[in-house]
Amino acid sequence: MLRLCLFSVLLFISSSVFSYTLEITEKEIQEEVSAMMPLEKKQFFVTVKLSDPKVELIKDSDRMGIFLNVGAVIPGVMKGAGRGRMTGSISYDPLKGAFYFKEVNIEALEIDNLAPEYAEKIKLLAQTVVSKSMSQYPVYQFKDTDIKQKLAKATLESVEVKNERLLVTLSIF
Q1: Is 13 domain-assigned?
Q2: How far apart are CA 117 and CA 70, in angstroms?
Q3: In this structure, what CATH number is given to the domain that contains residue 162?
């Protein structure tokens, strides 16, 4: 019985010893997202350009928001500029040791000089641009030069946003 109790205590203690919590700041994610911009998509005669992202880690969730400048051009019809806000989840790929912006949803989109009949088309194009681009390029990737990150990237235990930081707890086992 004593051995079982000691084994249980050792197992409980060792699980915390073999975990690693990485703090990824909003600024670090901002730098990665800014490096991806501007993003541009042309479909038929419509062009949408996204630029100047401002990253926001949404408190008490695994979600991220991005405020963007949005430009839209329909030759001979309209040219407008405005802002948009998109939110999405932060998804982890253990094979690449990287975090991606997924399940993108446009929460707000305002473009000057945009006729209502074009609003949905522009919104859909903007969402497509972000979804495709940001699902391919990580918003953060573990560094192979950091031995703790290299060892711990295999198993994700939790992702939490706290104090404008993404807290990622990983376990070696």
Answers
A1: no
A2: 17
A3: 3.15.10.40
